[in-house]
């Protein structure tokens, strides 16, 4: 089926998702940073100078922004997509913004005759480029059926959880574990560093035993780079994982659920943000725990 797809937000996840979709369809990409639009050209994405230019005639609009405020802005801001979307088109929210935000957006889009799919993604940039993401989905069954090919182009694991908002709730459970596992990996490698152990060997050994986790496997090598004073590739920012754990915290408080470990992990990311590490790869929390130079001191 011939489609025109718009991708709004060409950051760490948006750009590889756009590139993946461009293997099959015409994809127009918009980002506020011109440099990100320029990067997209090499992957076959047509750069759009405005949101309106990106969404004109698009059957599907994939939104890959950082948080709820950006979601609100890109859809309903002064130059947002909302009023420019074609009736019957579908907005796919891939960002982790929480069920309340995506439900509100869905209601406002419905008034415009536009459908919403709640589809937060997990897996990282490399897997996004390969179409190997986990996507937990919420949406009306008929809308999902009409968008199945788009979703499956991005995902190797596509799980329908329920209506709009359900995908975000499942993603919150996922992020609770991811946030804890990343913090635990950081503490473990900071301890190994303090004892003078071979950090590369530590990562290798830990990933072969009961202590293994995806976050240790993925973040571990970059944590080692940070502990050595090297600059790792930026894949997932500190402020993003802090935002996700903030969503987790809001939900657990609403349900009056004691989650002491998740709260401790959230606090670690807050402290890292306060130290000026917002834009650093989240692997920086290992060197932060070790008392090494913060971004403010660089």
Provide an overview of this structure.
This protein has helices spanning 14-22, 34-41, 51-55, 68-76, 99-111, 125-130, 141-154, 166-194, 199-206, 214-227, 238-254, 260-274, 284-289, and strands at residues 4-8, 26-30, 46-47, 60-63, 90-93, 115-118, 121-122, 133-138, 155-162. With 298 residues, it is α/β, with parallel strands linked by helices. Strand 4 (60-63), helix 4 (68-76) and strand 5 form a beta-alpha-beta unit. The longest helix is centred in the middle third of the chain and has 29 residues, at 166-194. The chain is globular.
Question: What class do helices, strands and sheet pairing give?
Answer: alpha/beta
Question: How is the largest sheet built, in terms of strand order?
Answer: 3-2-1-4-5-6
* pLDDT averaged over residues: 95
Give unreliable regions as ranges: none
Question: Helix tally?
Answer: 13
Shape: globular
Strand segment count:
9
Give the termini distance in whole angstroms. 51 Å
Order of H and E elements: EHEHEHEHEHEEHEHEHHHHHH
Give the biggest sheet: 6 strands, parallel
Bin the helical content. Answer: 40-55%
Strand content: 5-15%
Radius of gyration: 19 Å
């Amino acid at each position: 089926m011939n489609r025109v797809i718009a991708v709004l937000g060409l950051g760490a996840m948006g750009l590889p998702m756009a590139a993946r979709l461009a293997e099959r369809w015409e994809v127009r990409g918009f980002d506020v940073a011109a440099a990100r639009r320029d990067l997209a050209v090499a992957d076959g994405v047509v750069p759009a100078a405005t949101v309106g230019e990106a969404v004109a005639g698009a059957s599907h609009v994939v939104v890959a922004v950082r948080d709820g405020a950006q979601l609100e802005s890109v859809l309903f801001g002064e130059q947002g997509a909302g009023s420019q979307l074609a009736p019957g088109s579908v907005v796919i929210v891939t960002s982790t913004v929480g069920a309340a935000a995506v439900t509100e957006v869905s209601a406002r889009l419905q008034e415009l005759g536009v459908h919403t799919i709640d589809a937060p993604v997990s897996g990282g940039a490399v897997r996004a480029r390969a179409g190997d993401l986990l996507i937990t989905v919420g949406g009306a069954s008929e809308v999902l059926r009409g968008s199945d090919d788009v979703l499956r182009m991005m995902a190797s694991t596509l799980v329908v959880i329920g209506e709009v908002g359900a995908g975000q709730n499942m993603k919150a459970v996922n992020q609770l574990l991811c946030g804890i596992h990343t913090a635990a990996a950081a503490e473990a490698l900071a301890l190994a560093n303090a004892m003078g152990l071979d950090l590369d060997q530590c990562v290798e050994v830990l990933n072969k035993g009961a202590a293994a986790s995806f976050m240790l496997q993925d973040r571990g090598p970059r944590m080692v780079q940070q502990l050595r004073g090297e600059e790792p590739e930026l894949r997932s920012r500190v402020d993003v994982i802090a935002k996700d754990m903030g969503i987790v915290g809001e939900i657990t408080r609403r349900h009056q659920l004691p989650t002491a470990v998740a709260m401790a992990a959230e606090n670690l990311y807050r402290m890292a943000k306060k130290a000026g590490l917002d834009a650093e790869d989240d692997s920086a929390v290992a060197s932060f725990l070790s008392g090494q130079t913060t971004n403010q001191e660089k």
